[in-house]
Amino acid sequence: MKTKKFNTSQLTILGLMSGILFLMAYTPLGYLNVGPLAVTFNVIPVAICAIVLGSTGGAVAGAVFGLTSYMQAMGIGGVSALGSALFQISPVLTAIQCFVPRILDGICLGLIYRVVHKKANTYVSCAVTGFFSAFLNTLFFMSALVMMFGNTELIQNLMGGRNIIVGCCVMVGFNAISEMISSTIITAAVGTALSKAHLIPAAQIAKPDTAA
């Protein structure tokens, strides 16, 4: 099996996005706390890495995102109300909750961008990838939350006696919509700029770009 190798520019992008993830995680830039969950903009650097570096880069950025979430669950550099509560229930399951959905998100985003870009220009491809970065992050995160913590008193109280589907929609409704809109717009703009700067590998560009 061949190992994905990054050139200097790509490694620079990965390092920059990782730094931005930490910056966003520990400043108001990354989270907008609304109710028990937070609107997070940290899915955007993950999407950018997936666009520029493929699924491997997306997975690495997703792991960095997961690390910042787990650190906040432990109270390092900041506190996540939900993460802290889950950590008290099970540190191991909380680690899975923080890392696995974000890594899967990054992997899927690399595949989504590659498939969409065979049919559409860079702007549209980046916009679609940005949308799914928020959508899949929410889907994977909530699925993991229900599977691992769904029977706990904490989650049952948050569900408010509703069934799982309705309860999840109520919990993440405003947050998810805000994340999808912001991620779609910003990822499209940043991805297009990176394409014009020739930082997206030529192998990922399957047809002449009509957005440039």
From TrEMBL:
Assigned keywords, A-Z: Membrane, Transmembrane, Transmembrane helix
Residues annotated as transmembrane: 12-31, 43-67, 123-149, 164-190
GO molecular function: transmembrane transporter activity
Stored Gene3D superfamilies: 1.10.1760.20
InterPro entries hit by this protein: ECF_trnsprt_substrate-spec
Acetylation is among the record's keywords: no
This protein's record includes keyword Cytoplasm: no
Protein name per Swiss-Prot or TrEMBL: ECF transporter S component
Source organism (scientific name): Blautia obeum
